[in-house]
Amino acid sequence: MIEVLSVASEVYPLIKTGGLADVAGALPGALAEFGVTMRTLVPGYPAVIGKMSGGREVARFNDLFGVDARLLAGRAEGLDLIVLDAPALYDRPGNPYMGPEGWDWPDNWKRYAALSWVASELGLGLVEGYRPQVIHAHDWQAGLVPAYVKFGPSATLKTVMTVHNMAFQGTFGAQVFPQLRLPPHAFSMDGVEYYGGVGYLKAGVECADVVTTVSPTYAAEIRTPAFGMGLEGLLNSRSATVHGVLNGIDMDAWNPATDPALAQTYTASSMQGRLVNKRAVQEAFGLDALDGPLFAVVSRLTWQKGIDLLAANIDMLVASGAQLAVLGSGDAELENAVRSAAMQYPGKVGLVTGYNEKLSHLIQGGADVMMVPSRFEPCGLTQLYALRYGCVPLVCRVGGLNDTVIDANVAAIQAEVATGVQFAPPSEAALADAIRRVLALYADEKSWKKMQRRGMKSDVSWQASAARYAELYASLIGYTTDDSQDD
Ligand code: ADP
Ligand code: GLC
Q1: pLDDT band at 147; cut points 50, 70, 90
Q2: Among 97, 302, 381, 396, which is best to mutate for testing ligand 2, by the most ligand atoms less than 8 A from CB?
Q3: SS3 call for 99
Q4: CA of 240 relative to ligand 1 center, distance in Å
Q5: pLDDT per residue over 452-467, tens digit each?
Q6: DSSP labels, 25-82
Q7: Strands 294-301 and 369-372
Q8: Which of 16, 160, 164 gets mutated to test ligand 2 (max ligand atoms within 8 A of its CB)?
Q9: Which residue in 135, 356, 365, 487 has the fewest CB atoms around it within 10 Å?
Q10: In a domain, 267, yes or no
């Protein structure tokens, strides 16, 4: 077996703000059959500590970046966890990263440096009987892990850095550097220095043995200035170690045949249950019980997600007889744009703000079209859930959306392989065209059903990608994948 420590700032079902949690929560289970044992190090937010009642204390720190802390090891929700219980850092209300006013916690540099430093100590054998061979760091919050390992004493410990979103880099002023417990020469181009300050994601991309991101298209995009967000030069210089490994989904948590969040379960061969769910979605969003196409959005309401492009097309959607259900929260301006459309078109447009996992499942099971008009999308999970649930994805042709949805162009329709509709570039006009294409496809009931079924049968599991991660870990520690299976 290969022993891997995953380090993530969120993990489903304990704590989730987005797709990172889904990935960190599903990957350990998916890797088990590929000879990989994965434990996950997470911060002890209240939601996490609440689930760790049976946890064992395996280490204590009197001065972890100035605070008292301990490590709890145990299982919760099927995950093998090591929790960093440091109340002064993590025992705070609400979102992991922001205070109630919506501002980033001012000590985030310390909160996630502490997490990363502890990970590297675990890698050095801090806890008796546990010694990971590879540490797999996710996003900027774990970006310092590869730096602590590179500038630390171990010559054998290997690191993988996965970038889930280049837009969040964790950059801080140079004044934090002396407190990071790194040697002075780590404040350099080969280390954590980034445009005169400290860059956590930069450090991870610079220092990790292998860098991955969550789709092949995004792996190519981030080598360009438009998507690399300042890190494109570094990524180009390390291109041989940068891999795009597509996310999968948890096929049990997201299964329309068994999903308890649905009003009625269904399968690809008998989809009548979708109508019952559609009515339930309409009710939940205050929409009329109409039979026309029901478009939906389940998303952070931000510029990245192209919600402004959607807002600009609502008049057209409604005029064409469609309905729209939006679940999400985010930028006040975008939220207001959708809210005023909902007021203007009662019964046709509905908005539910806030985070609602159960409703997100119901929407996948009842809406006809899932819109993901993102300007950039490293992978995207909502379109994968949509495929699995027979909710046809309408997506912008970027990142993982490009890799997972087969556009219903003429050739794809003839070959009977289309699973959704793509548009590009991310503009109001291109989205409008795509909406018209969707409406035309929806009008042909028989071929629409075929497209839904094809989506439901497309492979959105972790199978292939878990194998790929296992291969990457194995190559780092000099195993062949066969060795790891036997071990
Ligand atoms: P990102 O991580 O960039 O937000 P992804 O598509 O990878 O985008 O993942 C988003 C995840 O968050 C999905 O599991 C989606 O269902 C979920 N999600 C987004 N907004 C909400 C919401 N308001 N309520 C419930 N789930 C949501
Ligand atoms: C990020 C990306 C999203 C991706 C998710 C999980 O939040 O924005 O595209 O699916 O991470 O990798």
Answers
A1: very high
A2: 381
A3: coil
A4: 31
A5: 999 999 999 999 999 9
A6: HHHHHHHGGGTEEEEEEEE--HHHHTT-TTPEEEEEEEEETTEEEEEEEEEETTEEEE
A7: parallel
A8: 164
A9: 487
A10: no
Q: Are residues 209 and 145 in the same domain?
A: yes
Q: Give the ligand 1 atom nearest the CA of 379.
A: 7
Domain that holds residue 475: 2-248+462-486
Q: Does 168 lie in the same domain as 106?
A: yes
Given a cut of 90, is residue 435 above it in pLDDT?
yes
Q: Looking at the structure, tell me whether residues 281 and 338 fall in a common domain.
A: yes
Verify whether ligand 2 is closer than 6 Å to residue 165 (CB atom).
yes
CA distance 206 to 465: 23
135 plus 224 within the same structural domain: yes
Mean pLDDT of the region 125-149: 98
Number of domains in the chain: 2
Q: Is residue 263 part of a domain?
A: no
- Cα(247) to ligand 2 centroid in Å equals 9
How far apart, in whole angstroms, are the C-alpha atoms of residue 461 and residue 71? 32
Same domain assignment for residues 241 and 293: no
Q: CA of 81: how far to CAs of 105, 127, 205, in Å?
A: 25, 13, 25
- Tens-digit pLDDT profile for residues 304-321: 999 999 999 999 999 999
Together in a domain, 317 and 444: yes
- Residues 6 or more apart from 334 whose CB is under 8 A from it? 301, 302, 303, 307, 308, 311
* Ligand 1 pocket mutation, candidates 381, 384, 387, 398, criterion most atoms within 8 A of CB: 381
Check: pTM over 0.85? Answer yes or no.
yes
> Alpha-carbon torsion 327, 330, 331, 332, what sign?
positive
Using pLDDT thresholds of 50, 70 and 90, give the confidence band for residue 485. very low
CATH code: domain of residue 468: 3.40.50.2000
